[in-house]
Amino acid sequence: MRRWPGTIGRIESARSVARDLRSNQYRTTRSGSVTKFITREAIETRNFGEISYSFEVAGRTYRGNRIGIEDSPRSFDVATTLQRYPKGKAVNVYYDPQNPQDCILERDDEGNVRNAWIAVAMLAGLILAGFVALSYGAERLRGSIADPARIPAVIMLAVVSLFLILAAKIVSKASGAMKKWPKAEGEIVRSEVIKLAQRERRVGQFNFSTRRTIDMYVPRVVYAYEVDGNRYQGDDVGWTSSANTTAPAEQCIRRYPLHARVQVSYDPADPSRSTLAPSAGMFPLLLLLLAAVVGFAAFALGWLIR
């Protein structure tokens, strides 16, 4: 693409579009000799900056909508994308001389590639430092714990406790920032109970396995709002639950009926991020309590239980 020629084009349209994205969430549980592999369907609403432009090559007009190397519109920093490419703006368009319909506005930045390799090197350094720290900690604990065989379990529980404390601080900080977000008036544009599949595979002794699919019912609440002339959609209404019955989901639907007016809190740096519930509630406290329980378990396993 760096060898593609460029020409002057013009932005035909620039808007924010909302799309539903489906994905799968995976988790594994174990009870005795049985391991359960769970795959759960998930759906979320994301905003994209959709840019359309036209240009001429050899007297023929072509149109494109790709901004960079990615094939789909950007799903991050939508407001910045729309401000960078407003309707009517003259822009540089790079195109494949063999097929001008294959075109982009931004070619790959070598600086981004360099930054990516620096990030990989930093991650490798953190992993190595963590390994050295754990090894050093194990040597220090060897003389103070009555049963050296418990050292790996004690270290693992201590690490989990520290991770939970860090997660609580991150959630609390994010919630505090959300409470300061400006608000915009919005409207509920979708309020319904949808059915998603949860697939389970149980593996027992001798690799004997069984499979089953459970229908899970979840509330699907989507709201629309407008910031600086751009229309966005979101589906963050706070904590919700799913079940194999419709009753829990229907409670959420009754709280947010179709066409109800709501106050939407949005991120001023990226208005495509929004929520109807800027408070994290008791979640940070629950994480801290769980961290205390796990930390006490590490202490008990290492020094109290003989």
Q: Any overview of this molecule?
A:
By secondary structure, the chain is α+β, with helices and mostly antiparallel strands. The chain has five helices and ten strands, in the order βββαββααβββαββα. It has helices at 78-84, 110-141, 151-179, 247-255, 283-304, and strands at residues 6-31, 34-57, 60-64, 90-96, 99-104, 183-203, 209-227, 230-234, 261-267, 270-275. β6 and β7 (209-227) form a beta hairpin. α3 (151-179) runs antiparallel to α5. The protein is extended and about 85 Å long. The mean pLDDT is 88.
How many extended strands? 10
Number of helices: 5
Class based on secondary structure composition and strand pairing: alpha+beta
What separation lies between the terminal Cα atoms?
A: 67 Å
Shape: extended
Name the helix and strand elements from N-terminus to C-terminus, one letter apiece.
EEEHEEHHEEEHEEH
Main sheet record? 10 strands, antiparallel
CA gyration radius, whole angstroms: 26 Å
Helical residues, percent: 25-40%
Keywords:
single chain; 306 residues; alpha+beta; ten-stranded antiparallel sheet; 5 helices; 10 strands; extended
